[in-house]
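Collaborator request, handled under Task 6.
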Amino acid sequence: MPNQIQLATPAPGYLRATFLNPPINLVDPDTIGELSALVTRLENDAETRVIVFDSGDPDFFLAHYDVLADKAKTAAMAKGPTGMHPWLDVLVRISRAPVVSIASIRGRARGAGSEFALACDIRFASAEKAILGQFEVGVGAVPGGNPMARLAGLVGRGRALEIILGADDFPGELAARYGYVNRALPDAELDAFVDRFARRLAGFDKAALAEAKQFVDQTSLPDDALFPPALDQFFRSTARPETRARMARLLEAGLQTRSDVELRLGNHVAGESGGR
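C-alpha cells returned to the collaborator:
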C-alpha cells in the first residue's frame, strides 16, 4: 500500500507533510500508524523546527474517520507511547512535540480530521474552500478525540457547544471569526502565506521555539486524562442501534464517496435528524 503521507523538505528545518489517501482522505488505521511514526520522528529530530500539514486533494484535508473500518480492530489497536489508544496518542504527542505544527486547511476537515487540525499548534484555512466541523452528534455519536476539550479553550464554552452539538459545517471565514482556526486567507494566497510563515520559523533557533511553545502548552493544553473517556464513549455511542441505523442510511446515500453527502455533510446529518 502506498504511503498516505508524502514528505518534502522545502528548506532546512522545514518539513511538509501532504495527505493523499483517495478517494477523500479518510483517516484509517494506516493513517494513524503513519502519523505515529512521523510524530516519533519529530520528537527525535534535532533539525526540524516546523512541519506543515496540507492535502493533495483540494476538496478534502482529512474527511473524517473511516466508518467502515472494523471498530473492534480499531478499539484493540496497540497503545502508543503515552499508554493511550494510538489515535489519542498521536493527538496529544503532536501538540507537545518540540516542533511547531501547522495545519494548512483547504477542503473539508471533519470529525477526526477536525480533531487532528485542533491538535496542531496553528491552523490556517482557505476562506473559500476550507470547511471544518464535528458531525458526530448529528449521527448519534460522541466525538472520540475529545475536540470538546480543545474547542472550549479556543472558542469559549458557548461556541464549543454550538460546534459540537449543532454538528454543522463551519466555512473557513466563520471558523476564523470563532477562533476555530487562527485566520482564513483568500484561497489564492493560502499556500504562499503558510510557506512564508513556515520558512520564517525554520530560520529561528530550535531550542527557543521548543522552549517557548512548552510554556504556552502548560497553560493551554487539556489534561491528557480527559481524552480516553471520550474515546470510550465514542465506541459505546457508535454501537447503539439508532446510531448504526443513521450511519447506514448515510452510507447508502453516498458517505465516504465523492458525493453531495460528503461535500455537504452538515446538511445531510441534519436531514437524518429531521432538522432540515
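The cover message to the collaborator said: "The longest strand covers residues 122-133. The CA atoms of residues 75 and 85 lie 8 Å apart. Please let us know whether this matches your experimental observations."
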